[in-house]
What we know:
CATH superfamily: Metal-dependent hydrolases
Oligomer: single chain
Number of strands: 7
Low-confidence stretches: none
Strand content: 5-15%
Radius of gyration: 17 Å
Mean pLDDT: 97
Largest sheet: 7 strands, parallel
Strand order of the largest sheet: 1-2-3-4-5-6-7
Amino acid sequence: MLEHAAELSVREFLCVCIDLENFQDVLDLAEKHKEIYASVGVHPTSQDCKEPSVDDLLKLAEHEKIIAIGETGLDYFHVDKDNSDWQRERFKRHIIASNISGKPMIIHTRDAKQDTIRMMQEEKAERGVMHCFSEDWETAEAALDLGFYISFSGIVTFNSAQSLRDVAKKVPSDRLLVETDSPYLTPVPYRGKPNSPAYTYYVAERLAEVRGTTVNDIADITTKNFSNLFMSTSK
């Protein structure tokens, strides 16, 4: 998989943690491969799992290969909003851990954009990325106003995603990131097949088309932004 990614000039990776039970597997990948980094966090839809404390997150984030807190956020698609107090409390703890550690958050939001932005504002979230962004410009602008980055996945290549491409045109170059959210959301031209980190290339290719520039330009911009967000923020 790493060799395939290198063939498409994808040479650095952030492997995202979604629960503490499997954190060690994520960390092992990062320790084994110098080009892989990792995060620590518990996904908003992860249930029947260990609930992270702020101290848990801070302790695990001390490792030099852990460069982010998350994946965290709110999801009212899979979990009913009226029964999501635990989800909001979990999100709050991640924000606190991120602010204390100086490591940026990876934020997931689905059918919860208003509460997600509200909590980011109320808890004074300092930095991070709106991962696999699929919301409207109003949501993107609110996150940008808080200093956050916007990351686009294979969704931006889908024929049905013109409104998202319209958002992608507006995001400032210094806040733009790309991802696959592998193993899901495989971009065109491989939609419907297993995803791979290599296919980040096709996300960058479509963004280049949308923004009227080249793939090399998008690669340079997003590589620099990755470094600025994830590699230079530790306290």
